[in-house]
Design a protein that fits this description.
heterodimer; A: 2 strands; 80% helix; elongated; B: mainly alpha; Amino acid/polyamine transporter I; 72% helix
Chain lengths: 122, 549
Amino acid sequence: MAEPAERSSIRDGARDSSRRDLYRTIHSSDDFQSLRRRYRRFAFPATAAFLAWYLLYVLLSTWAAEFMSLRVIGNINVAIVLGLLQFVSTFLIAWLYSRYADNQLDPLASRLEQRFDEEAAR
Amino acid sequence: MTPQVLTLSLFLIVVALTVAVTIWASSQTSGATDYYAGGRSFSAFQNGLAIGGDYMSAASFLGISGAIALFGYDGFLYSVGFLVAWLVALLLVAEPVRNSGRYTMADQLAYRMEQRPVRTAAAVSTVVVSIFYLLAQMVGAGSLVVLLLGIEGGGLQNFVIVCVGMLMIFYVAVGGMKGTTWVQIIKAVMLMVGTVLITVLVLARYNFDFSSLLAEAAENTGKGDALLQPGLRYGGSLTSQLDFLSLSLGLVLGTAGLPHILIRFYTVPTGRDARKSVIWAIGIIGCFYLMTLVLGFGAAALLDTGAGSAVAASGGNLASPLLAEAIGGGAGSTGGAVLLAVISAVAFATILAVVAGLTLTSASSVAHDLYGSVIKKGAATERAEVWAARIASFVIGGAAIALAIPAQRLNIAFLVALAFAVAASANLPSIVYNLFWRRFNTRGATWSIYGGLTTCVGLVFFSPVVSGTESSLFPSGDWAWFPLSNPGIVSIPCGFLFGYLGTITTREPSVETAFDELEVRALSGAGAERGLGERPSPRPASEPLPALE
């Protein structure tokens, strides 16, 4: 408890060497590697997809005015439909990720968390 | 009861309610975790509402509907960007940041880097982003009052800005994160109820036929089909098209770098709750932005939005309240007066809640990062840190008041877009690099924050926003050589580039091993700060006590 002043310039995570080792053991475990893989397998493609889809929408809004002004139903044109589809895709990705995380990520994460707590208490 | 008295009473009710909640919350606040993170005791749904309350600012409620009323479809582009941006927060940022930090945006950087330089950099950019954002809200408060009391003139408007500033300092200094969160929850509920009410009333007038609402908007404004398609505001020249591209980038990448949004993730017990609160927030915020479409086109259909009208003179900021008045029966009618008063009170609550959140964020960062870690080198007591936060809220609130007075002629949504650009340029690169790039190090973090921040703020300074045109902050001067009014398209890549360059020009092996630790903690939540009652095992002896930090 006497050394916070000297230690504060060091990074936060470096404070406790037994915890550090534990984190590293867990990092190389199969459970963690598969959690990491599963997380990235969803998050990265989904991010790329929604960014590309949003960018397409923005570019169309800027440089394809004629296409955007085509009427679909009544006074509702392509621009409004595409804008609303951005809402739909956002809700959809949020819902899919929520389901994916509940089923594929959380069980693994809880197991790792429990293991950490048990071994840290030892 | 005259309309002014009615409006004023509703304003006072909002103030009384939020002040009461704040005082109650202060009695529930004892330590630093309570003050900075509301004791991590909010549920995912409560935090989802509070995120909505923090995010749906005057820019959304007054600014976007105004921009749609004036520029039609181009205003709606803001709504789309503001919503889609939440996916960045959901997929990449919310849960990892919650798991790896404690109180501020800087925590997750400090986890594996040298604390003092990264905390200083993060605190500086937190304060800058928050002040840009604060300005927008205070300008909104000023223009509301012009409408409601019908008195144009600097004196009164400035007086209101000062009052709002004092209230926000009160919420933050007294209520901390608990008080602020409850103010935001109350506001989110009021805002949703008010917006649904006006939306239904507007749609009812057109027999719930959105297409005929659009037709009347196109006809009433005299702009015809141009109102319903992109291009009124950002079409035409290449400069304005690039400006729009720049704006869109800033919107979609800014949200996940907004410090006042990031610290909301610390108010829930676990990282999973942080994720769930973002899902709630996406639902609430998405529904709200859908309704801005009806509010905006409704204002275009039912109000005079031509040159010289009250809507145009306010930069569009008054479209929603005036729409409420018109839909209630028009000026002079009882229904109109009541709805105008209700919607104005909602807008007022909106502003109060958002300014409180922003001030709290800056004050926390100054106290926890600058005072606690940099100046006192981690030796400050919790009590001293919380007092430092209270004092910081006075200083930051004061600065915001002083800057808001000259900024009153700018559109609110536009000012907020600038705050987003700063967040996307200065904060997002370091957050993303830190979570996903093993080699990213202290120099990379400081370069990306300072580099992104300087580029962004510098380009704004040399843009038409500040000088060179009649609507500039300084209309008499002209030093604008940067043509775009939103710098994102240049400054966001700069933030990423500086972070990359800083990192590859130096080796810092300790950050790479610490990356593995951070990754375990960020993804699984192992060893993360938990809320009360969420600690499944007894506190292990090897765990450092909080006093160390």
